[in-house]
Amino acid sequence: MQGLYLMIINDNKVTVMGRKQLLGELTVMLMNTPQEIVDELLDLQFALERSPLIHMCKYPYISCDPPITTIFAPNRWATADDLKQTDDLLRSILEILHNTEIGSVLFGRFSMPQIDNVLLDKARYLSDEYMSSLASYQSYFNMIYMAIYDIVVMHECFYELELMVSPMYNSLSASDFCEQYQDFMFPDDEKWSTERLALPLEGEFQLGEPMITQYIPVSKEDGKWYFAEFLRMDTLQGLIKTDFVKGVMKGHLPHRCEHCGRYFLMTKGYHTRFCDMPSPENPKRTCKQMAYAKRREKEKPSEDPKVQSYKRCLDRLNKSCTRGSITPKQKQRLVALVEELYLKATTTPAFTNEEFEKMLQSKQLYAQLGIASRSRGRPQKQQTEQTQQTTSKQK
C-alpha cells in the first residue's frame, strides 16, 4: 500500500492532492471530461498494453474477476527501444491529463524525470544496470496506466448511472442516487451482504477499494477544532467513488445543465435546471443567466410582474438622474444592484412578486448603498425667450 492519492474530508469539503473543494466536485470533473478525450486515453491504454512493460504492472491491488486482459502484450523482456517508446506514450498521456480539469487536480504537480537514454544505450541487455533502470521506471508506468484505466472505467460507469437517474431530475434526492447506485452495483436480485462485499464485481468496476483511514483533529478559521478523515489509497476508483458517495451523503448531487449539457453540483435546498458556469455562447454570462434571458425574450412583458417591476424601477432611476436627485455614478451603482436583485429573483425562488417590488423601492435601494437622495421635485419648465417677451408685452 503506497498511498498514491491523498484526500482529507472535513464536513462538506474535501482536500484532494492539496486542493480544497466541495465533496462531489471531483466526480463532476470526471463526468465533464469530453468523450473524445476519454476515447483518446483508451487508445493510449491499449498502446501501453502492447508494451512488454505491462508484465510489471501491479494493478489491481485486489483480486479482480476476470483480471485485466493483456492479450496484446509481447511475451518477452523489454528492450531499451521498448522503454523509449513507452516513455513517449506516458508523456503523451500526462500532457492530455494536465489539460483536463480532473487531471490538473490529480497530476498538476507531477512530472516524469527524463529517461537516461545514455545509460540504456550503453547498458548490456538484462545487465544489472539495465534491470535497475527498468525497475525504477515501473512505478511511473504503474501510476499512469492505473490512472487512465480508472478514468475510462469510472467515466463509463457514471455515464450509465446518470442515464438511470436522469428521468428523476425534477425530484432528485440523495435517496434516489443511493437506490440507483445499489441497482448499478447489484444488477441481479442478490441482496447486499458482507459476503458479496468481499467479492468484487465481475468486470472492471471494483466494489471494494483498499485504503488507509486516519482521523485527525484540524482547526478552522473560526478557531474551533474538528475531526477530519485523512484517506490514502492507491487507485483512482477508490478516490472518485469516495468523493461521489461522501458528496451524496452531504446532499451534493450531480446534475446535468439543461442549457449547456455539462454537469454541476446541486447543493441548495431547491432544484435548479441550469449551472452557474460561464455559458459557451457568452462566457461573460452564466448558463443560468443566458437561459432566463432567452426565456424573458419569449415572454410578453405583461405576463411577468417581476419584469414590470424591474422596468418601472429603471425608469425611476433614469428620471431621478435627469432631475439631479442622484449622480450618474450613483445611478450606475443602483442599476447594478437592481440587475443583481432581478437576476436572483428570476433564477431562484428568492422573492415573491410583492417582495421583489418592495425590494426595488427607491428608499430600499438607496439605503442598501448608503446613498442620500437630493429630492428636488419636478423641475420647472424653462420659458423660452419668445414666451418671456410675450408675457412682458401683455403686462
What is the molecular shape?
elongated
Structurally, the number of domains stands at 2
Individual helix count: 15
Largest sheet: 5 strands, antiparallel
Radius of gyration: 31 Å
Total strand count, please?
7
Going by helix content, strand content and strand pairing, the class is: alpha+beta
Average pLDDT taken over every residue: 75
Beta-strand fraction estimate: 5-15%
Strand order of the largest sheet: 3-2-1-5-4
Specify the helix fraction band: 40-55%
The secondary-structure element order is EEEHHHHHHHHEEHEEHHHHHH
Sequence stretches where pLDDT stays below 50 over 5 or more residues: 60-67, 189-203, 378-384
**Could you give the distance between the termini?**
107 Å
Write the layout of secondary structure elements.
Layout: E1 5-10, E2 13-16, E3 19-22, H1 25-31, H2 35-49, H3 80-98, H4 101-107, H5 117-122, H6 128-165, H7 174-185, H8 194-198, E4 211-219, E5 225-233, H9 236-249, E6 253-256, E7 263-266, H10 287-298, H11 305-323, H12 328-347, H13 353-359, H14 362-369, H15 385-394
Antiparallel strand pairs: 1-2, 1-5, 2-3, 4-5, 6-7
Can you give a write-up of this model?
- With 395 residues, the chain is an alpha+beta fold.
- It folds into 2 domains: 1-256, no CATH class; 299-369, no CATH class.
- Helix content is 50%, strand content 10%.
- The chain contains 15 helices and 7 strands.
- It has helices at 25-31, 35-49, 80-98, 101-107, 117-122, 128-165, 174-185, 194-198, 236-249, 287-298, 305-323, 328-347, 353-359, 362-369, 385-394, and strands spanning 5-10, 13-16, 19-22, 211-219, 225-233, 253-256, 263-266.
- Strands 3-2-1-5-4 form a 5-stranded antiparallel β-sheet, covered by helices on one side. The chain has a two-stranded antiparallel sheet with strand order 6-7.
- The longest helix is centred in the middle third of the chain and has 38 residues, at 128-165.
- The chain is elongated and about 90 Å long.
- Residues 60-67, 189-203 and 378-384 have low confidence and may be disordered.
